[in-house]
């Protein structure tokens, strides 16, 4: 039995091949490899796609987060609130800037940041009086939106910067509008495994604020001013390559079809698996970009058994995330010891099944059949 791929970029390449090659040839012909015309074209299309006023492409999702926080001058003495159940990049960036990540628990059903836990954590930081509550990073985990209405309310009441880490979820929508305008700024990633993945690293920032966009453009090119050798601030080398932009333009042509295919696969999994395990709970009034389809097993032993049964049937699976960030060696010293029980529990029994647009109906049926009863 041929093994099923967790992500099948070869199949996708065959599907988009003609358009892709034409776009790459155009770049090879004009040779503007840095900030060439495809970069501006991509930024315009991404902004239009989600209705944001501005899009600034950058070198990765992590750099998008970093540039957004640098623009707010987040640094030593600042507390940045973020979920403990996310990828390390979310927490790494505030630390790199000298700020302190404060880990927040997540909701046991949606896996998104828990606003009750968030309020408690902000209150604790205020009481301790050592750090200034500076920013909240809402993560749209696995393709679904974070609770943006509540997050905006908290950020406004506390006068904090609100950043959307949308690395996994570009293409998803909430209340009928695409993510990209829920926070003061939105960071997206084009890492190959993300819903809108490129063929390497890349990312972008979306915002409705032209002043922020101008800062982002300066920061991604060494803090430059109106002219190239005017250095206004410390920035970074954080641009997206023209070749990568050309690839992403070709991928955008099929992006909505791919999102529809992911949704159809998720529905087939829901229907086929709901009698055997806990299927993902949909966030209300939203559509998912289905970066990840994660189910919950009763406990760690059941998860191991399921993974083994799947492996025997040629079905790959993955664990996002096997450890919450506050238990990782790199962050343990940052954490005040508060228990974050939901994040700790999810890590022991969550399991992701393959979901990518080139999975065939037969393969979807094979995945469902391979899950033990
Ligand atoms: C992938 C990811 C990032 C980082 O994106 P890169 O493009 O890989 O730097 C940040 N946050 C989350 C939640 C991610 O999943």
UniProtKB/TrEMBL annotation:
<feature type="modified residue" description="N6-(pyridoxal phosphate)lysine">
    <location>
        <position position="194"/>
    </location>
</feature>
<feature type="active site" description="Proton acceptor">
    <location>
        <position position="194"/>
    </location>
</feature>
<protein>
    <submittedName>
        <fullName>DegT/DnrJ/EryC1/StrS family aminotransferase</fullName>
    </submittedName>
</protein>
<dbReference type="InterPro" id="IPR015424">
    <property type="entry name" value="PyrdxlP-dep_Trfase"/>
</dbReference>
<keyword id="KW-0032">Aminotransferase</keyword>
<dbReference type="GO" id="GO:0008483">
    <property type="term" value="F:transaminase activity"/>
</dbReference>
<dbReference type="GO" id="GO:0000271">
    <property type="term" value="P:polysaccharide biosynthetic process"/>
</dbReference>
<dbReference type="Pfam" id="PF01041">
    <property type="entry name" value="DegT_DnrJ_EryC1"/>
</dbReference>
<dbReference type="InterPro" id="IPR015421">
    <property type="entry name" value="PyrdxlP-dep_Trfase_major"/>
</dbReference>
<keyword id="KW-0808">Transferase</keyword>
<dbReference type="GO" id="GO:0030170">
    <property type="term" value="F:pyridoxal phosphate binding"/>
</dbReference>
<keyword id="KW-0663">Pyridoxal phosphate</keyword>
<comment type="similarity">
    <text>Belongs to the DegT/DnrJ/EryC1 family.</text>
</comment>
<dbReference type="InterPro" id="IPR015422">
    <property type="entry name" value="PyrdxlP-dep_Trfase_small"/>
</dbReference>
<dbReference type="InterPro" id="IPR000653">
    <property type="entry name" value="DegT/StrS_aminotransferase"/>
</dbReference>
């Amino acid at each position: 039995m041929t093994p099923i791929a967790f992500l099948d970029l070869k199949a996708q390449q065959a599907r988009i091949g003609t358009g892709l090659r034409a776009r790459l040839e155009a770049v090879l012909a004009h040779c503007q490899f840095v900030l060439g015309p495809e970069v501006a074209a991509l930024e315009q299309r991404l902004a239009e796609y989600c209705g944001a006023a501005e899009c600034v492409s950058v070198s990765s999702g992590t750099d998008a987060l970093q540039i957004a926080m640098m623009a707010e001058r987040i640094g030593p003495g600042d507390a940045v609130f973020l979920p403990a159940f996310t990828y390390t990049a979310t927490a790494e960036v505030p630390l790199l800037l000298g700020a302190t990540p404060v880990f927040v628990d997540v909701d046991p059903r949606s896996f998104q940041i828990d606003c009750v836990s968030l309020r408690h954590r902000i209150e604790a930081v205020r009481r301790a009086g050592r750090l200034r509550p500076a920013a909240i990073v809402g993560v749209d985990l696995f393709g679904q939106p974070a609770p943006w209405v509540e997050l905006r309310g908290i950020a406004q009441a506390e006068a904090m910067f609100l950043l959307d880490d949308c690395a996994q979820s570009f293409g998803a929508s909430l209340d009928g509008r695409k993510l990209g305008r829920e926070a003061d700024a939105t960071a997206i990633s084009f890492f190959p495994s993300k819903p809108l993945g490129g063929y390497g690293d890349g990312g972008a920032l979306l915002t409705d604020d032209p002043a922020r966009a101008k800062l982002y453009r300066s920061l991604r090119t060494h803090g430059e001013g109106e002219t190239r050798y005017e250095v206004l601030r410390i920035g970074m080398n954080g641009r997206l390559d023209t070749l990568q932009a050309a690839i992403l333009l070709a991928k955008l042509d099929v992006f909505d079809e791919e999102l529809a295919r992911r949704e159809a696969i998720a529905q087939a999994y829901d229907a086929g698996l709901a009698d055997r395990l806990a299927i993902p709970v949909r966030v209300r009034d939203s559509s998912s970009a289905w970066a990840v389809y994660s189910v919950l097993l009763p406990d760690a032993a059941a998860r191991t058994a399921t993974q083994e049964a799947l492996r025997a049937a040629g079905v790959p699976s993955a664990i996002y995330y096997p450890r919450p960030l506050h238990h990782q060696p790199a962050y343990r010293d940052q954490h005040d010891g508060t228990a974050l029980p939901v994040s700790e529990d999810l890590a022991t029994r969550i399991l992701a099944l393959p979901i990518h647009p080139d999975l065939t109906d037969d393969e979807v049926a094979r995945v469902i059949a391979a899950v033990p009863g």
